[in-house]
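Posted in: Structural Biology > Protein-Ligand Complexes

Title: Requesting predicted complex, pyridoxal-5'-phosphate in pocket

I'd be grateful if someone could produce the 3D structure tokens for the following input. Sequence and ligand are given below.
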Amino acid sequence: MIKANAYGHGAVHLLPVLEAHPKVMGYGVATLSEAIELRFEGRATKEIVVFSDTGAWNEERAQAFRQHRLIPVFSTLESLKAYEQVGVQIPFEIEITTGMNRAGIGIDELQEVRSSPAGIFTHLAESDDPGSSLSRHQLRGIHELLGLRKERFPQSRIHWANSGAIFDGKFWEINRADLVRPGLSLYGLPPDPSARYKKLRLRPVMNFEAQVLQSRWLKTGERVGYSGTYKVRPKRGEWILTLGAGYADGVPRLLSNIGQVLCGRTRRPIAGRVSMDVMNVCSPRPVAAGSWVEVWGNGISAWDVASLVKSTPYELLTGVSNRVQRIYE
Ligand SMILES: Cc1ncc(COP(=O)(O)O)c(C=O)c1O
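-- Reply #1 --
Done. Output follows.
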């Protein structure tokens, strides 16, 4: 899955690696414009599935999908009907809900499907927790789908596994699927922060770093940032560094006064409010302007940062804005 600019990593830049990889069958994106960017700027040659069903299937959209060799996903009977009415025949997939109910056609509604999909798939709500009742319920749905596929759609491929399901592949019976749809794990992050994934030794692809802009010595009692929410406590005073990244770059404002950054090998606390373009951290010593500190990556896990702000790495990674320069090594 390389939607949302490959989870913020830069889909077009990753494409040469994915194009050359024999196990990568194709790409999953959310929108038509993401798919077109992959075809044009990334020169993607493999198949591209566009997962978000906008519901507005019409001649123009159909021609765009045909022209760029894109595979639409239909998640409602209405959009499937619109596809049949428009009459432009291209391969498509059907999303079926097996209990997540975020989107998709119900298993019982499949009897109304007349045309023959290139693929049918479902998505999992709690793939990293195979013991949960929801997961067991979804697995039963998958079994039903496998049966239906055999009976009604023998030509269709079938898939359901995201990263969590791949790592619990035995429970999720992924050997019965025609393909898998890894997202977060492609970018070196585990499906959840629990210790059970440690043995996989994943390494995050993204190191989100900010540059030190200045170091300033402040006396005790002085305040930092909007509303002066940080007050210098040490009697001698302390160094306050200014870093060139703020919430417009994707640093969550909720990290204000609670987050940390990695300065060399040491964590330094964020002092005061994260503002639009900059944030501050305290330090026992000045740091040369131009040095880089890590906001998240190999030293501070995106999972740890996410837990501080009640979020997930999915949101953090995809929230890194366009103005942040991507450097590929
Ligand atoms: C339909 C679909 N498949 C696969 C994935 C990949 O999930 P993950 O990043 O957890 O591997 C997503 C991600 O949101 C998705 O929406």
